[in-house]
Amino acid sequence: MSHWSLYTWTRDGRSLRRALPTLTVLAALLTASAGVAAGAAGAVERDVLGSGGLTQIELSSFEGDESVRPLTTSALGKAGAVPGVRRVVADYSSALYAEEDGTYDLAARTLTPADDLPVTKGRLPPGAAELGKDEVVLPATAQGTDFASYVGRSIAFGYTKATGAESGATSVVVLRVVALYDPSWQADGPGVAYLSEETAASLAAARAGLSPNDFRDRKGAQSAVVVVGHQRQVAAVTEALQAQGFSASPVSDRVRNLPGLFGVADLAMRAGVLALAVGAVVLGAVRASDSTRARLGQFAVLRILGCGRPELRRILLGEALLSGGVAAVAGVASGTVLSVALAGPLSDVLGLPITVTDALPAPIWAAAALLTPAAGLAVGALLGSRDVLRRDPYLTARAHG
């Protein structure tokens, strides 16, 4: 880089230094987005894999999709018979609401091996043991009700029992509250009560107006978690389940591939790099064209004094690299600070702890944010200055004399 580049970049307000603010903002947005996505992804992966996700496979049922095998009793029995499978836990959804004190209305689901609840009071069954059929785990607070005094007590809950095609009545079930969990943990949504598989199936069957056995045989579960003996067996078991018609996917793959929101975030990162590159090239072309036109007389004198077009291009290229480099460093620094500052609010939204190191952008995205502005601006500068520098220097000097 010519020393003239540094001189003109620092002293001349018409240099490519004018591209700094826009490029800095673009680099900062890309870095902050990468940090936020990395923080969310790291928190979800740590939470799911920390609960034994490396040895778990998720089965899903899609209502109305005949190509996917329903998770009925017989189907789950076939899944449990696959070599390598240690346990299959079906997830049934229903609802529990206040029968005595309070005004809460809680969704109810099966407590599966994939649920790593952050317990704040009480205790979950040790190891891989299931909840008892008369036990329930509640959020510490929900809908204005504090459940702290419920721990260890047997409480009457209301649930709906269908009495006709479009009618139902309230029935009562007595459950002992064995533990409370942090309500900010919302992997299955806010305010969820966790039950044993048997109890969850019974409540879901009552709402459908069926006996538990008929419900399990005819309707089936909405999802299930398959636990295998060792991580190395996951791929083979998943393949065997898929061959039997199940919608099966390893929990570890699902988390690491980050579908849904985080998959969109990954695509947004790629789109951000592309936008930054295109923006830098376009901005470089426009700014270089404007800059060379504004300094046409100055460049004409330099050419008359023996400075060729390649030397002038090197000056502009040096200005572009300086502008892009400074913008990249400033943008990455400010974007990283912003992503770290957003770690707390994002942690509250997800209900999962996000550390400062989680919120740091991945090296590949940080490198992209550092290199793209300078490279794009340099290409744009070369393209934008091409026509202007071809003008006759003597005629130009006379016109600006």
UniProtKB/TrEMBL annotation:
Its main subcellular localisation, reduced to a broad class, is: membrane
- Tell me which positions the record assigns to the signal sequence: 1-37
Location of the protein in the cell? Cell membrane
TM annotation in the entry: 267-286, 320-344, 364-384
Give the membrane topology, semicolon-separated if more than one.
Multi-pass membrane protein
Q: Where is each ABC3 transporter permease C-terminal domain found?
A: 274-378
Query: What keywords sit in the KW lines?
Result: Cell membrane, Membrane, Signal, Transmembrane, Transmembrane helix
Where on the tree of life does the source sit, at the highest rank?
A: Bacteria
Enumerate the InterPro entries for this protein: ABC3_permease_C
Pfam families to which the protein is assigned, alphabetical: FtsX
Name the record gives this protein: ABC transporter
